[in-house]
Each structure stands twice: as C-alpha cells, then as structure tokens.
Amino acid sequence: MCLAAPGKLLSIDGEIGKIDFGGTIREANISMVEANIGDWVVIHAGFAIQTMNEEEAKETLELWNEFLSAETTEFK
C-alpha cells in the first residue's frame, strides 16, 4: 500500500522542492503542481500530486497522529 503525506514547501530549485514534514526535510519533484514557497503539497512516491490549504493539511496530519497513536497503543 502506498500513502501520500502533506508537507510544507520550503524552497524551489527548478522542478525540485524542499518539503518540511513536521521537521523532517525531504526533496520532491513539484513539476506536476503549481505551488509556491509556503504552500502545502501532498507528496506521493517523491512527487507533489496536489496542493492543499493549511487547514486541510493540519486536519490530515491530526488524523495521521491519531492513527499512529492508536496503532502504537494497540501493539503494546
């Protein structure tokens, strides 16, 4: 199963953007979306596949955190 995760676009160098995933910085190809520094982008397999507003991004991250907390508790 593959998952996509939202991150904040920190910088752009050609088609490559530096993306902040809650303190973890990774590079991704942003050529498929129109994004500016400071935008939230959804990354899948190293590519930005869509942009989203900050509210949607934070809601998605909260859901991920709830899921991960439940999984961690469940396996203890």
Summarize, please.
The protein has one helix and five strands; from the N terminus they run βββββα.
- Give, in spatial order, the strands making up the sheet with the most strands: 3-2-1-4-5
Strand fraction band? 35-45%
Task: Kindly report how far apart the N and C termini lie.
Answer: 24 Å
Continuous helix count: 1
Please describe what this structure looks like.
The chain is an alpha+beta fold and 76 residues long. The chain has a single domain, classed as SH3 type barrels. It contains 1 helix and 5 strands; from the N terminus they run βββββα. The protein has one helix spanning 54-74, and strands at 5-13, 16-21, 24-29, 40-44, 47-52. A 5-stranded antiparallel β-sheet has the order 3-2-1-4-5. The longest helix has 21 residues, at 54-74. It is elongated and about 40 Å long. The two termini are 24 Å apart. 14% of the residues are buried. The model has no long low-confidence stretch (mean pLDDT 91).
